[in-house]
Amino acid sequence: MKRRARRNPYSRELVSFHRWLKGAPYVEDFCDHVGDWFASLDRKPPRSFDPAEPCTWLEHTSPRMRREFRGWLVDDLIGRLVGEEARDRDLGWLPDYVYFERGAEILPPTTWLVHFSDAAGKIARDGFRVGAMGSAAYTHGDASVSGPGWNFAYEADRADPSHCYGTDAVLFRSAGIRVFHKGDEETQVLFWGPHVREGEFDDVVRWVIDHHRQYRKAIVRDV
Q: I want to staple 133 with a disulfide (CB 3.0 to 4.6 A). Which of 90, 138, 147, 149 is the partner?
């Protein structure tokens, strides 16, 4: 009898995004800084390097040179740029992954998460309809961000109501990526909004009603 293939519990979006975070940084995102790298080495760049076409040079250079350039990004440039970001609006081009520590970990679909938001009621009714593709965004009911995408939450047993991301919260189960955010200085769980099943919200409501008396001290908090 032919065995049925096991269904992958993780979405293609989550697996791809996790791989993207793990593989960062990508040298192509910083090719305009190749000249700065050579300057930091206090040596002349190779004759093949054209300051007017740094991205073309990086594309065709040797794997060894790419590895060395990537090492400089990790050890020097990215840290300086992230530190300057708050003071320099011109650094809005930085890819999202620079704000996350390395070591992202995938959490299973059974993980209970808490998402703080001013639009918790709308989320509970309609699901996570707002996000930012390829990055993470929290929902302050901001209509300027349209379309489904990534959002962040906290593991339910680690959530702190003092987080100022909204006056209310949504409790649900979902797979996600646990990672430390440098700017916010906290561990967050990134999740793909469209894959939070609508039925989960009903399950949570029923669970809270059934267990409110037993767990009311843990459930009822001032946010």
A: 149
User: CA angle, 89 as apex, 67 and 57 as ends, to 5°?
Assistant: 30
Q: Is residue 25 reached through a cis peptide bond, with omega within 30 degrees of 0 on the bond before it?
A: yes
Do residues 147 and 48 both lie within one domain? no
Residue 81: domain span: 27-94
Extract the tokens encoding 134.
Answer: 């390829």
pLDDT for 211 beyond 60 = no
User: Taking the CB of residue 85, how many other CB atoms lie within 10 A of it?
Assistant: 16
Phi, psi of 153 (to 5 degrees): -145, -175
Q: How many domains does the chain have?
A: 2
Q: How many residues comprise the chain? A: 223
Q: List the beta strands (DSSP E) in the chain.
A: 105-107, 112-117, 150-155, 168-173, 176-181, 186-192
Task: State the greatest distance between any 2 C-alpha atoms of the chain, in Å, as a whole number.
Answer: 75
Q: How confident is the model at residue 105 (pLDDT cuts 50, 70, 90)?
A: very high
Residue 128: what pLDDT?
Answer: 85
Residue 16 forms part of a structural domain? no
What amino acid occupies position 203?
Answer: D
- Decide which of 94, 128, 150 is a domain's last residue: 94
- CA 23 to chain centroid, in Å, comes to 13
